[in-house]
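Dear colleagues,

I hope this message finds you well. In preparation for our joint manuscript, I am sending the Sugar phosphate permease (Dethiosulfatibacter aminovorans DSM 17477) sequence together with its predicted structure, so that both groups work from identical material. I would be grateful if you could confirm receipt.
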Amino acid sequence: MNSKFSKYLLIVTLGLAGGSIYFLPYIKYVFYDAHIACMNISNTQSGLLMTAYTIANMILYIPGGIIADRVSTKKALIFSCLGTSALVFLYSFNMENFAISMLIWMGLAFSTGFVIWASLLKTIRIIGTEKEQGFLYGLYYSCNGIAATIINILAVYVFQTGIDMKAGYFRACIFGGFVPIVVSIILMVLLKDEDCIPSVEDGEPKFHMADVSQLLKNPVVWIISIIVFCGYGFYMSVSYFTPYLTEVVGISMVDSGFLSAIRTYLLLLLAPVGGLLVDKCFKSTSKWLCVSFVILSGLFGAVLLLPADINPQLASIYTLIPGALVMMSYGVITSIVSEVGIPKAMTGTVIGIISIVGYMPDSIYSIMFGNWMDKYEAGGYNLIFGFLALSGIIAAVLSFVVLKYSKKNKIKCSDSQLQDKSLPI
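The corresponding structure tokens are as follows:
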């Protein structure tokens, strides 16, 4: 893209798209009680909806990535936004039918994960140069978080206009269905097909189906998958500071909830800062991740050493530190793909492969950590934070492997010098 303003405006729009389409899949995190009551389901049934959604996503990640590399990104994004809206509206009028809701949640895997996930990340990589990948990915995640926050706040306001819980929940869902439609219109205006196609003049090869087997055989792709697994594990696990502060430290639920909102949403504003560190200081995503993961390992490990009588205010402030560093790391983690010589035309497929392993913490950590908390109560947090400290060391070592690989093969991160031969088989 020629204009910096247009480039950043498009990133903001993509962030809005990412923040809007996940309203329904994760609606229980905002309207949990209304979600259960209006659907007339149990907590277990609510969990089954997320299980169906997660499994369907895992099945669709690779084929979705392949399709993202072969179809128009603009059409994929618009189709996904409109498809999500249709499913939200369908749910709004059938929320008491659990069987239909299960089908809707599986359908959401098609509209929010199938093609759009890889298309979003691929577009971010294509519209910027290799020297600004960290900042652009960080900006996207920051905009994504801000958009989700604003949409959820507005949805809560709409919910309060209902005469009762059911009417309010219905209105909130209808509102959540209209937002992706608005986003799709904005994408029609701002996003051009040529902005999302790697330049042939820059030596970028076209995607071929044979490339899929090459990528699957590429060990670096799987190493990056584990790095993303650890990074996303950190991202989703900072939420465990919320019950830790109430059950172990002893602060009120209100104060803990306030701190949770800061860690979950406000600290996402630091994602572009992580991107600037990658682009301007470390000149490498893998080098930054080496450093940040080691620090995170120490920060989570230090929780085990906090005295039982620690000042609650001090403990509360401390939990914001790893939360901030997590956002500065996870927000740029996908930009590591540009370091290993994978052509832009294959980005969607690579994202699909990486996502299968990378986002497994959704289905693994929740069960494992929940079991530790149920079995050991307050002692379970020592296992949780100790496990996270160990995963940080593993992620740092693997990031160092990627860094050495990049240097050894003399991969130059610039649009004009990415070659097919950069991809080992």
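For the figure legend, we might mention the following. The chain has two domains: 1-197, 209-409. The mean pLDDT is 85.

With kind regards,
E.M.
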